[in-house]
TrEMBL record:
Protein name: phosphoribosylglycinamide formyltransferase 1
UniProtKB keywords: Purine biosynthesis, Transferase
Higher taxonomy: Bacteria, Bacillati, Bacillota, Bacilli, Lactobacillales
Pathway terms, separated by semicolons: Purine metabolism; IMP biosynthesis via de novo pathway; N(2)-formyl-N(1)-(5-phospho-D-ribosyl)glycinamide from N(1)-(5-phospho-D-ribosyl)glycinamide (10-formyl THF route): step 1/1
Biological process terms in GO annotation: 'de novo' IMP biosynthetic process
Amino acid sequence: MRVAIFASGNGTNFEVLADKFAKKEITGNLVLLFCDHPNAPVIKRAEKFNIPYETFTVKECGNKLDYEKRIVEVLKAHQIDFIALAGYMRIIGKPILDEY
């Protein structure tokens, strides 16, 4: 199972999960971090684990619907099977829920 973690801030939850994936304590492969804050500390934590990340904002996309459609495109490009929310501070909308 290919997993993406969504996070928004410091990344302590992400780091715990990434460590558990690395130690095979969680089944699957952590293959992506998505963060909605381009300067969030969680990005450094992803780099520490050599986990690729994507980051962009609603503002960059123009509106929430286009933002979530772009997220779905990213998830599909990475062949994500499952997403985990670990301190992601946005409400997940229909485009993402319909896919995952």
